[in-house]
Write the structure tokens for this entry.
Amino acid sequence: MTDAQKTRVQAQFGGIAEAYVPSPGHAAGEDLNLLLRWGRARGPARVLDIATGGGHTALAFAGFTPIVVATDLTPAMVRAARQFIAGQGVAGVHFAAADVDALPFRDESFGVVTCRIAAHHFPALLPAVRQIARVLRRGGSFLVEDILGHDDDEMAAFILEVERRRDPSHVRAFRALEWTAFLRAVGLTVMDEAVMDKVRPWEEWTSRARMSPEARADLDRVVLEAPARCREAFRFQIADDRVVSFTDRMLLLRADKD
């Protein structure tokens, strides 16, 4: 990552790491279940979980994988994930603070690499997926989930403003064609693909980011004053002039190394 983006990410998540441990959208869901089904079918001996956040994906894969390595750019996130997983009585998960653009692992050292709901913080996909392909064994799988970028420019600009007002370290969501092209460029071929909806309860989503009351009020105003078609595209629910929730489209991919 660029130094400026690295600083933004660490500033955003350094003080709120523990808030991601109880996050319902990260802890469970059909999206995580699908990644687990893909991963279990591969039968890897070693899994690398990139941008582990609260550690939920690493914990889930540890249920059937001998060795899981969980990494995150933000040391506070690594500590929160370590404490959470230790509290579950699970061994076999190792932790490291690491930048996805410079992974500190040998070539072809993992059978599966996972990255769940994090790539929208990457300033560019190519450097990240190049490193992922490097550490992945031939025949191994990269299992990724992230917000699906919108093809309509107005919709993309609207949700980008919403995301960045809540989280200044958000860069953008990538479209499916972008993912496929960058993965193909580093020798990874998409073998499975799915799109799933994930409802974001507004109070929980904004509170987890520890927004100030003023910033939250400004964000609410952006949504309420946006064109109806923008709100409808993301299924914003409004009640009594208050935002209740919206719905993200999540892209899930399994890409195998040639």
